[in-house]
């Protein structure tokens, strides 16, 4: 037979002897046929080859020099000089045409683009990979048959087998060329190359050398085109069908040289240095092995079936010995074929998989992991053992996350087979720790989520240790939602197991039901639903306390674990409950949750006989304080989700509801709102002692205030009772979070028209009660003297001032703070302080922040004094804003008396004077200096709004006395405070900013303070010296911790550092916004403030850039009247009346030209005063 694949045999010469001779003349892989060029050859060049075959006549140095070849190839593309002259002449004649863009040249040589004999429809890309996926019709051959879509893969494989029977080497050459085309290579092998098996390595080397000259960066099976997405799947399908077709014809075992030669060429290509060759051949080889495993599976099944049938027929009276003998021969033949096939598979495995599963290309490793999983499932007789499973275990530590993800996916497929779990026990013991590590610590959330699902299968099989179960269960607190959702089933199953264990302790579910009857499932008293909830919160409490990073270092609110959200701190139990809500029915049952919380479980053992099931059940259902808090958070989520679902159902547009359905939905919404309104006072009464639980209960009031319930007429008495309870919590707790939540509840209640009067009455009662407490604490003390109050009184005043601040934020404080108190006792009548208006007392409290020089104070007491004064400043600031707002309305609607304006001016002047005194006595870096500066700017900006008022009484201008500008001296001080905040942010983040030189007077009076701006980022402990918090406890913990805790301590330090960086940036941007607003309002001298803000505008982050953009917009609005000033690099001087500050502009002019501030006429500055 011609072209048979046997040593020493060759095929007959082809019809085109010249083409074969030309093709086989050279072994370098370079095409010997002269390519066609897009342009003609130039008349003269530096050095030209006479013919394409002159390569063979060049000496070895020239032939191996890549530089010379690149130069020659570039020169070959140079157009002829005559043609260039003709083109230039055409351009001169036809001036209307757009000139063509010049083509880039390499090393001074013009570029010529060669093309093959096939017509090119598209211009080649710059990288030469525009034709990454060859066109099937243009390529022809087996590639066209497979990818043209005209024939089924089975038909293509069948016809190839027919060609193989006619000419073996030519048919096999088609297969090899098919793989080459799939790799993007245009070169081919011939039947002579196929017959020379020993030369396969050399020929593949030549092919890849030629292919690499094309500088291909992409290849078909990874190309991002529509056709490429199906090319890989079609390639795999073709080789699978081909191998099965070979087996169906019997050639797999009768013509072993076919699979052997295919093995030689594919394995040679899988070891190539060229990535397209290696990857494509590996995909083809893996597809061949997958098909062989499926054949082996069928042979094993056939052998077992024949063996079993033979044994059955050889037994009994009606035994058919002849038939049994035939079946036994069939079984023996199938076993022999299976043994031969196993040897073939082992040969392919040793030469392909063992080398490629750790390939440098991660895509190859992913394909190998996927294929091995398919083999283990398809042919467990060979691959389901420790020798093959270990490769999956090793890939678990792959550096490429898709490879880790793929192997986890394959392991999940294996563990889902219940009948294979026994064979996985040894593998699990070896790699369980790694799988747990991936679920808890992997850097990629997708891998972690998949690993959690894998460990859930291990848990069901009983392969996990208790510590592993707890480690995975704690992922319910993970920051990634994908991981939390993946662990829900694992976590809920663990809780269910604990619940079932406790039920068994009670004697089993049947015994409990028999003893308690219907009450066993009741939501009114201790029963099985409560026991399940108890197990849930118990596990959450244990997992929460185990996490030292969150428990010790993320405490920024009431409770142990709060996470920072956009608006407020929210317990991470809220996040857990939201994740569990869709999957756990007992979390959805908010009515049972509420009744469990309202039940006093502290006396659970007093009723009933000791030792009976009911008594034990009540003991099991006892809740600790932390567990009650966790259950309250779960209740909050349950009610919120329930209400949200009702609202979504009401507005849902899919499907029309009947009138009955709409009425039922409306009734359910109203009844839910009424039940929640009734529930909140009961919960406040039950959990009103702890600020932590009170906060959780008060958050339920937000749900009642949703807009969806505003249409329903609630009973005013019910809301009044709710407001009574909120008032009690407001007066009994000093926690900032509780006060904020209570004040929000009161503000929302004011929005209800029917409750407006009731709410105002409650707020007035709160004002009276709070101010009475305030006066009682003040007594006859001189409030301007710092340090004359005890720590207990300062603490009481601080809490009282916090309540006054919240009240001033939600209601008008003017009527309450202007009232003079009536003296009721002799000591009060003799004291001017007791009878003075509250506003005057508050202004005096601000002056307590004035720090006398050389006075030593206890740090904690000094911090308490500063907090008291700062709170008083905020209250007076609210008073001023309310007063100015009321004055604007009065001027536009009526004619307010002069006395009211004079009174407001007097109080405003006293307030600003107190703020300036505090600023003058403090270092710019003091935390209180920033807050005082912001309040000062707010007051001036609010006063500037009066300039735009048109009074009802024409010609009246006395009110403009309240619209004062910030004096230059105060502006200088405020800018120093801003600079300190700027420096603080730079130190925390390690940014290098421009220094601001101070004038001689400033340097003379400068107080000693912080280190250089461009020093290394400050450590947390250094920053805490300027903050109210301290890391002393964290330092002690770090010193006493073992080496195993070093990683957790480092993570906690990083979290604290990030928190401080974010806080510093927020404070800096807030300060910058206030200064920008002051410029826009015209209350500060624009020129020095603008210059100071723009000194480091490109070095303080994107958020700060957005702040400065407000100034840029204003600057663009005045661009037309600005004189043009030549930009130059120089020292910018910030001018003021009191002292000079030189700002050194060391920034390169090309990088930051906007930092050069142009001169502006004074008229332009004045023009914005009314804006």
UniProtKB/TrEMBL annotation:
MF terms (GO), sorted A to Z: chromatin binding
Start-end of Acidic residues biased regions: 54-81, 1016-1049, 1136-1165
Cellular component, GO annotation: chromatin; cohesin complex; nucleus
Bias (Basic residues) ranges: 90-105
One example of a Gene Ontology biological process annotation: sister chromatid cohesion
Region Disordered, annotated ranges: 1-133, 996-1056, 1132-1171
Record-annotated SCD domain positions: 353-438
Domain of life of the source: Eukaryota
Protein name: SCD domain-containing protein
């Amino acid at each position: 037979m011609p072209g048979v694949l046997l040593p020493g045999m060759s095929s007959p010469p082809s019809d085109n002897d010249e083409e074969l001779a030309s093709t086989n003349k050279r072994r370098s892989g370079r095409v010997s046929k002269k390519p066609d060029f897009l342009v003609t050859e130039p008349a003269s060049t530096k050095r030209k080859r006479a013919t394409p075959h002159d390569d063979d006549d060049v000496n070895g140095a020239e032939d191996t020099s890549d530089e010379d070849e690149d130069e020659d190839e570039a020169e070959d593309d140079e157009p002829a000089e005559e043609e260039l002259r003709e083109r230039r002449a055409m351009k001169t004649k036809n001036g209307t045409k757009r000139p063509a863009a010049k083509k880039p040249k390499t090393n001074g040589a013009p570029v010529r683009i060669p093309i093959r004999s096939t017509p090119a429809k598209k211009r080649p890309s710059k990288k030469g990979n525009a034709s990454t996926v060859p066109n099937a019709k243009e390529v022809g051959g087996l590639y066209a048959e497979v990818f043209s879509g005209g024939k089924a893969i089975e038909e293509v494989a069948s016809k190839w087998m027919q060609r193989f029977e006619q000419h073996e080497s030519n048919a096999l050459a088609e297969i090899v060329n098919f793989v080459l085309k799939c790799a993007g290579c245009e070169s081919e092998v011939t039947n002579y190359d196929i017959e020379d098996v020993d030369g396969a390595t050399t020929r593949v080397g030549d092919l890849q050398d030629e292919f690499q000259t094309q500088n291909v960066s992409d290849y078909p099976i990874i190309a991002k085109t529509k056709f490429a997405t199906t090319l890989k799947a079609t390639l795999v399908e073709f080789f699978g069908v081909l191998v099965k077709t070979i087996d169906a014809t019997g050639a797999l075992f009768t013509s072993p040289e076919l699979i052997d030669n295919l093995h030689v060429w594919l394995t040679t290509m899988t070891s190539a240095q060229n990535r397209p060759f290696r990857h494509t051949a590996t995909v083809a080889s893996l597809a061949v092995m997958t098909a062989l495993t499926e054949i082996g599976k069928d042979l094993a099944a056939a052998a077992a079936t024949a063996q079993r049938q033979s044994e059955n027929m050889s037994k009994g009276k009606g035994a058919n010995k002849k038939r049994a003998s035939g079946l036994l021969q069939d079984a023996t033949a199938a076993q022999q074929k299976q043994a031969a096939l196993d040897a073939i598979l082992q040969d392919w495995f040793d030469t392909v998989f063992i080398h490629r599963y750790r390939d440098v290309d991660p895509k190859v490793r992913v394909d190998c992991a996927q294929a091995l999983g398919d083999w283990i499932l398809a042919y467990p007789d060979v691959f389901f053992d420790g020798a093959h499973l270990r490769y999956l275990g090793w890939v678990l530590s792959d550096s490429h996350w898709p490879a880790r993800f793929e192997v986890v996916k394959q392991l999940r497929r294996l563990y889902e087979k219940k009948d294979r779990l026994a064979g996985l026990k040894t593998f699990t013991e070896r790699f369980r720790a790694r799988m747990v590590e991936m679920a808890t610590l992997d850097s990629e959330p997708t891998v972690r989520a998949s690993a959690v699902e894998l460990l859930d299968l291990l848990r069901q099989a009983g392969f996990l240790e208790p510590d592993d179960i707890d480690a995975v269960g704690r992922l319910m607190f993970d920051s990634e939602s994908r991981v939390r959702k993946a662990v829900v089933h694992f976590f809920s199953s663990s809780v269910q197991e604990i619940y079932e264990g406790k039920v068994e302790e009670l004697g089993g579910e049947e015994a409990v039901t028999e003893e308690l009857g219907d009450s066993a499932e009741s939501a009114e008293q201790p029963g099985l639903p409560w026991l399940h909830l108890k197990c849930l919160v118990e596990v959450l409490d244990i997992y929460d306390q185990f996490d030292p990073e969150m428990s010790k270092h993320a405490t920024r609110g009431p409770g142990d674990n709060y996470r920072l959200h956009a608006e407020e701190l929210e317990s991470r139990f809220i996040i857990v409950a939201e994740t569990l809500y869709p999957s756990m029915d007992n979390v959805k049952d908010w009515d049972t949750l509420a009744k469990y919380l309202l039940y006093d479980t502290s006396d659970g053992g007093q009723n009933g006989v000791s030792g009976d099931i009911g008594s034990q059940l009540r003991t099991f259902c006892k809740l600790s304080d932390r567990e009650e808090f966790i259950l309250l958070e779960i209740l909050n989520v349950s009610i919120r989700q329930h209400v949200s679902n009702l609202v979504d159902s009401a507005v849902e547009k899919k499907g029309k509801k009947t009138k009955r359905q709409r009425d039922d939905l409306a009734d359910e919404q109203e009844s839910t709102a009424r039940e929640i309104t009734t529930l909140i006072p009961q919960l406040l009464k039950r959990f009103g002692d702890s600020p932590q639980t009170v906060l959780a209960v008060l958050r339920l009031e937000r749900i009642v205030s949703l807009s969806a319930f505003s249409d329903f007429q609630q009973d005013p008495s019910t809301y009044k009772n709710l407001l009574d309870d909120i008032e009690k919590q407001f007066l009994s707790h000093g926690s900032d979070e509780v006060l904020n939540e209570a004040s929000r509840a009161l503000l929302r209640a004011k929005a209800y028209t029917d409750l407006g009067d009731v709410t105002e009455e409650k707020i007035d009662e709160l004002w009276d009660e709070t101010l009475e407490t305030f006066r009682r604490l003040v007594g006859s003390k001189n409030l301007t003297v710092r340090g004359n109050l005890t720590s207990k009184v300062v603490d009481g005043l601080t809490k009282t001032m916090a309540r006054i601040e919240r009240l001033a934020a939600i209601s008008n404080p003017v009527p309450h703070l202007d009232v003079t108190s009536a003296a009721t006792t002799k000591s009060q009548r003799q004291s001017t302080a007791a009878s003075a208006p509250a506003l005057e007392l508050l202004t005096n409290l601000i002056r307590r922040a004035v720090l006398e020089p050389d006075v030593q104070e206890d740090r904690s007491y000094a911090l308490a004094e500063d907090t008291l004064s700062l709170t008083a400043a905020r209250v007076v600031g609210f008073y001023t804003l309310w007063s100015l707002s009321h004055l604007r309305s009065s001027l536009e609607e009526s004619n307010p008396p002069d006395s009211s304006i004079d009174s407001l001016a007097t109080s405003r002047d006293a307030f600003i004077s107190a703020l300036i005194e505090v600023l003058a006595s403090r270092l710019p870096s003091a935390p209180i200096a920033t807050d005082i500066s912001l309040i000062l700017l707010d007051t001036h900006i609010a006063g500037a709004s009066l300039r735009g008022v048109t009074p009802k009484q024409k010609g009246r201008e006395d009110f403009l006395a309240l619209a004062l500008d910030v004096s230059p001296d105060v502006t200088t001080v405020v800018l120093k405070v801003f600079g300190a905040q700027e420096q603080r942010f730079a130190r925390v983040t390690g940014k290098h900013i421009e220094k601001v030189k101070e004038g001689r007077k400033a340097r003379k009076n400068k107080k000693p303070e912080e280190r250089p701006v461009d020093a290394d980022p400050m450590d947390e402990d250094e920053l805490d010296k300027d903050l109210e918090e301290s890391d002393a406890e964290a330092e002690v913990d770090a010193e006493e911790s073992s080496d195993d805790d070093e990683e957790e301590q480092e993570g906690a330090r990083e979290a604290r550092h990030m928190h401080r960086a974010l806080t510093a940036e927020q404070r800096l941007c807030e300060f910058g916004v206030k200064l920008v607003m002051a410029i826009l309002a015209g209350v500060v001298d624009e020129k020095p403030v603008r210059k100071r803000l723009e000194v480091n505008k490109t070095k303080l982050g994107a958020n700060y850039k957005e702040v400065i953009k407000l100034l840029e917009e204003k600057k663009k609005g005045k661009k037309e009247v600005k004189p043009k000033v030549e930009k130059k690099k120089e020292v910018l001087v910030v001018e003021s009346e009191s002292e000079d500050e030189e700002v050194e502009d060391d920034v390169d002019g090309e990088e930051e030209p906007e930092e050069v501030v142009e001169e502006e006429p004074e008229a332009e500055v004045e023009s914005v005063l009314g804006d």
